[in-house]
Design goal:
The complex is a heterodimer.
Chain A lengths: L1 H4 L28 H6 L14 E7 L5 E7 L1 H5 L3 E6 L23 E2 L5 E7 L2 H8 L3 E6 L6 H6 L14 E9 L2 H7 L2 E9 L11 E7 L5 E6 L4 H12 L6 E5 L14 H13 L3 E4 L2 H7 L6 E9 L5 E11 L7 H10 L10 E8 L15 H18 L3 H7 L6 E2 L5 E2 L4 H12 L1 H4 L7 E11 L14 E7 L5 E5 L8 H13 L6 E5 L16 H28 L6 E4 L2 E4 L2 E7 H12 L3 E6 L19 E12 L6 E11 L6 H20 L5 E2 L5 E2 L17 E7 L21 H13 L2 E2 L1 E2 L3 H12 L5 E2 L13 E3 L18 H6 L2
Parallel strand pairs in A: 1-12, 7-34, 8-32, 10-11, 14-15, 20-21, 27-30, 31-33
Antiparallel strand pairs in A: 1-5, 2-4, 2-6, 3-5, 7-15, 8-13, 9-10, 9-12, 13-14, 16-17, 18-26, 19-20, 19-25, 22-23, 23-24, 26-27, 28-29
Helix pairs in contact in A: 7-8, 11-19, 15-16, 16-17, 18-19
Chain B lengths: L5 E7 L2 E7 L5 H8 L18 E4 L2 E4 L12 E3 L12 H9 L8 H14 L5 H7 L11 H14 L8 H5 L3
Parallel strand pairs in B: 1-5
Antiparallel strand pairs in B: 1-2, 3-4, 3-5
Classes of the chains: A alpha+beta, B alpha+beta.
Chain lengths: ~850, ~170
């Protein structure tokens, strides 16, 4: 019913297309940094050694929740080789990634909130001395009752972990309703409710976080920080705030990240502490976290309990959906407010959902803070929704692929929650994996113990809004043409292994007719490069790409105007390819690119251009509309094949078929790598990865090591059959959309649905461990519900809903009631 | 207090070296801190992740678990010793070509473990590659491009004019 009424969205002009012929874009190109990476030449943060460098260590809390009643550091200070000791009182200004949750201190002042919370910092002549000095610091704690998980936070509003939030130990409550869901459920032929749980997991980058700070003494008074961060711009802001330095007196260099996955997106204690230690000692200071400390930094996947209720017609058409999520946030805010909204934002962008209600809650608990991990807040609801749909399809006696294909969200439409869909290749994705996997011959037809499952997903290509409100571009690029024919491109984007440096080189090469290796790329340095907001939310290819195209096209236009005069042809006929500038109608008539640059430089001076990109405003204007909008949405479909051993409950995944709508592939090599890597990480979350705590031992992390935190090795990784679907989006550079996060999302639900197909039990919880499968199988044998999963969703005192009329109800994107800012929220804004 | 330094002589990347360091230091620390060879990485320093793999007498070892002193008189090879004569080793070239190095942090270790494998068998099966690399963790690639790169390099080292399969670069069309 809804699709017919959806408002059409006008398509903006295509970005970056010239004569339609692509010479570089879309080819399989080795990354510009590939040689450095395979020779070990890439300098990661811990590879930096500066003369006279000191080494820092952090003392971390052994208590999950305690008041600090005293800290005695004199013995540590007296240890030979110790150069400086810091405690919380030395760094009293709070920080945090989101303006609404400035709730962290570089070192705890009055209170610790999780085992691992930093309390003191030491700089010493060696790592050994710094470590020995940690033992000499005497901290007196007064234990407080720890809050162990989200449900505990609801039943125990006291003691409060923080003195802000939406009451007790609830950090954030969201209640949004788009259209009348009660009316939708009344219209349905079938209404189904399900409860599911997604366990927390961590990024586990192979590189431990590291940072090096250097202080140039007064009168310079300038701080330089090299750090394995995905967001140098936000680290820059946090350093300026906490250290009370002018931003111009701080340079942040993002070293290439040895894996990020969202885990290096917050400003961290250790970055601020080494900066302060460098300022105090006047010497460079390095810190490299131990693997155990990386687990305490965390900011990973929120453990999320979910309840979903959907009404459908007999043909599977959704009439209404109501989704509730409860997130276990850990000890600090981090990105948690955004994460909470993300657990409800994207349910509407895959299938047609005419009425939608979302209630989300994030609890503070005494564990390492959760934040953004690949897929940020959306793999959990995607798991819930896709398993729920599998159950609905079975009840309707429909093939789950057919159900999905019949009710896809239309391209170029608005969703119930006012997200603007552009290109939408999900139908093609489903058809590719269905045909490729032999779905029709296998689904419900494989021998016992073998099963096949389908799931789909969608993800944002960059957050439509910045983390702190500002009207500035999200990405900026500067470009300089060299007389020798080389080009240097400068951008604040951060290479974390995803290939963002190469995207810049490929796009410049495409537009200026060069080889990508003619392009030098300078990135992630707040002194040298224009601001890019960072490598998060799958934003870099689209946003830096569009900024880069603008800069390159301006350079092309400048060069072309002078070349046209020389060649005596109209500017419109000047083409760039193969390092030449020539007449499109007579390609032999032209000049070398280097000569064309010199011509232009002689005529008008140095050829340098800039480009920038700001996403268009999104149509939703209700409170909470800031999370979910994106210039473009990617789509994925996944079929998983599983073997389940009923005797042990062990699940093996021999093969996954994945199709991903990337809009347009810019570099085929990195697209394949991102899709396969996403499947891998999704497989880990589906089968084994979990941040597990000893509930009976004061929420101490069970397994803060690479050995005990199980992640897939070569022996667990499945075969992957990849289909790259290209449905160009008008907002993407050459039509490109993201591919680094979206393909993770459908993997856990596809595996869960396949396990059901194999052995007839529902494991409504990831990871799907042998124990859970085994328990569900025993229940089935005993004639109990053949299921393992959560049983109840706790009562939560939700605020009044913000009611937003849908586009087809004639709304204008604003709330009609309950949308105003509540007094408590207004009060806590800094 | 730091121990008095000891001197070690061994063969590093086909050249004799002498280095002085505190005797408790692991080979990983000696390589990175005393010899300035930071191509060898670390992910745990507990022998769990394989990221610090180097070759000692041609066999992969975890340099975080080996004392520097234990290497006296042995042949050690790190990633810095792989490229020669101004060209990448075929394994390095194949890793770069296929995108088997994403963030690149685990890459030196995978390259050396793969080199040890190819030293033993010129035509490893996919299962042999998986077994040989099962002690090395990679969080970026899902390992698939690594297998393909090892296979491509193995073919080239056998003298074949091998090229990546189109579906490996572009997916199944």
């Amino acid at each position: 019913m809804a699709s017919g009424k959806k408002a059409a969205v006008t398509q903006p002009a295509a970005v970056g297309r010239s004569d339609g012929q692509l010479r570089v874009v879309g080819k399989a190109i080795r990354k510009v940094d590939a040689t450095a990476k395979v020779t070990g030449a890439t300098r990661f943060a811990d590879d930096l050694f500066l003369p006279r460098m000191l080494y820092a260590k952090l003392l971390r809390s052994p208590h999950p929740h305690a008041r600090i009643t005293g800290i005695e550091t004199s013995k540590a200070q007296a240890l030979p080789g110790v150069k400086a000791v810091l405690t919380g009182r030395d760094l009293p200004i709070p920080f945090g990634i989101l303006p609404v949750s400035q709730d962290e201190h570089a070192l705890a002042i009055d209170k610790v909130r999780f085992v691992g919370d930093p309390v003191a910092g030491i700089a010493a002549a060696s790592e050994e001395i710094a470590t020995a000095a940690l033992d000499l610091i005497d901290v007196r704690y007064e234990s407080l009752r720890p809050i162990t998980d989200a449900e505990d936070a609801i039943t125990h509003p006291e003691p409060r972990i923080h003195d802000y939030g939406d009451g007790g130990n609830l950090h954030k409550l969201v209640n949004l309703e788009f259209g009348d869901v009660a009316e939708g459920f009344a219209e349905a032929d079938l209404v189904r409710e399900d409860l599911l749980f997604f366990e927390g997991s961590t990024h586990l980058p192979m590189e431990q976080h590291a940072a090096v700070a250097d202080w140039s003494p007064l009168p310079d008074g300038k701080l330089t920080l090299w750090s394995s961060t995905q967001t140098p711009h936000y680290v820059h802001r946090a350093l300026a705030k906490v250290l009370e330095l002018a931003p111009a007196k701080i340079r942040v260099v993002a070293t290439p990240n040895g894996g990020g996955f969202g885990g290096k997106s917050d400003p961290f204690s250790h970055e601020i502490v080494v900066a302060k230690l460098a300022m105090l000692t006047g010497r460079p200071v390095k810190i490299t976290l131990t693997r155990e400390e990386v687990f305490y930094c965390h900011r990973g996947r929120h453990p999320t309990l979910m309840w979903v209720k959907t009404g459908v017609k007999r043909d599977g058409a959704i009439t209404a959906m109501h989704f509730k999520s409860l997130l276990d946030g850990g000890g600090y805010g981090s990105y948690g407010v955004a994460s909470t909204y993300y657990t409800g934002a994207l349910q509407t962008v895959t299938y047609d959902v005419p009425r939608y209600k979302f209630q989300g809650a994030r609890a503070f608990t005494n564990k390492p803070p959760c934040g953004p991990k690949r897929g940020h807040g959306t793999p959990q609801p995607r798991f819930a929704l896709e398993v729920h749909l599998d159950k609905i399809a079975e009840q309707l006696e429909m093939d789950p692929a057919e159900l999905r294909l019949k009710h896809l969200v239309p391209p170029n439409s608005l969703t119930a929650n006012w997200l603007k869909i552009g290109s939408m290749g999900l139908g093609e994705c489903i058809r590719r994996v269905i045909d490729g996997s032999g779905w029709r011959q296998k689904f419900r037809k494989l021998p016992p113990g073998q099963g096949i499952g389908l799931a789909c997903s969608s993800y944002i290509t960059g957050a439509g809004l910045p983390i702190y409100w500002n009207p500035l571009p999200h990405s900026g690029v500067q470009l300089k043409c060299d007389r020798g024919g080389g080009v240097t491109v400068f951008c604040g984007s951060t290479e974390i292994g995803q290939g963002s440096d190469s995207i810049l080189a490929v796009l410049v090469a495409e537009i200026l007719g060069l080889d990508p290796f003619d392009v030098a790329v300078v990135t992630g340095d707040t002194d040298l490069t224009p601001v890019d907001l960072g490598s998060y939310s799958s934003r870099v290819t689209l946003m830096t790409g569009n900024a880069c195209i603008q800069a390159a096209e301006r350079a092309r236009d400048a060069i072309a105007s002078h070349a046209a005069r020389q060649l005596e042809v109209p500017v419109a006929r000047v083409a760039f390819a193969d390092r030449r500038v020539f007449d499109l109608e007579d390609p032999t008539h032209g000049l070398a690119f280097a000569d064309a640059v010199q011509l232009a430089e002689a005529a008008q001076g140095t050829i340098g251009t800039v480009g920038s990109y700001t996403p268009a405003p999104s149509p939703g204007r209700y409170r909470g509309a800031g999370v979910g909008p994106s210039p473009a949405y990617s789509y994925s479909a996944c079929v998983a094949l599983v073997d389940v051993d009923p005797a042990s409950g062990i699940v093996r995944v021999p093969r996954v078929w994945i199709a991903h709508d990337v809009g347009r592939s810019i570099n085929a090599t990195t697209v394949m790598g991102q899709i396969e890597g996403s499947v891998y990480m999704g497989l880990g979350e589906a089968l084994m990865e979990e941040m597990a705590y000893r509930g009976n031992r004061n929420v101490v992390h069970k397994i803060p090591s690479l050995l005990e935190y199980k992640s897939p090795t070569t022996l667990e990784m499945c075969d992957v059959v990849t289909y790259v679907v290209q449905d160009p989006d008008p907002n993407g550079p050459f039509g490109a959309k993201e591919c680094g996060q979206g393909p993770l999302l459908p993997v856990p639900p596809a595996v869960a649905n396949a396990v059901y197909d194999a052995v007839g039990v529902r494991v409504d919880e990831v990871p799907i461990t042998p124990e859970k499968v085994f328990k569900a199988l025993r229940r089935k044998e005993k004639g109990e519900p053949a299921r393992y999963g959560p049983a109840t969703f706790p009562e939560i005192a939700w605020p009044e809903p913000t009611r937003v009329p849908t586009p087809w109800e004639g709304g204008d994107g604003r709330a009609v009631e309950g949308g105003g800012r509540r007094a408590t929220e207004a009060a806590r804004r800094p | 207090m730091p121990d008095a330094k000891v001197k070690l002589a061994f063969e590093l990347n086909s050249e004799p070296v002498e280095v002085a360091f505190a005797p408790h230091k692991t080979l990983l620390e000696v390589l990175r801190e005393d010899l300035g060879l930071t191509g060898t990485k670390h992910g745990c320093e507990l022998g769990e992740c394989g990221t610090c793999t180097v070759l000692v007498d041609g066999k992969p070892v975890l340099s975080c678990l080996v004392l520097g002193l234990a290497c006296a008189g042995h042949r050690v090879k790190t990633v810095e010793g792989m490229a020669g004569g101004g060209s990448l080793h075929p394994l390095q070239d194949a890793f770069a070509e296929l995108g088997a190095a994403q963030c690149g942090y685990c890459t030196p270790a995978f390259l050396l473990a793969a080199e040890a494998l190819l030293g033993e068998t010129a035509r490893p099966t996919r299962d042999e590659i998986k077994q040989a690399l099962s002690g090395n963790l990679c969080r970026c690639t899902g390992y698939l491009k690594i297998y393909e790169a090892v296979e491509l390099a193995a073919a080239r080292l056998r003298g074949e004019d091998a090229k990546p399969a189109p579906e490996s670069l572009y997916g199944v069309r």
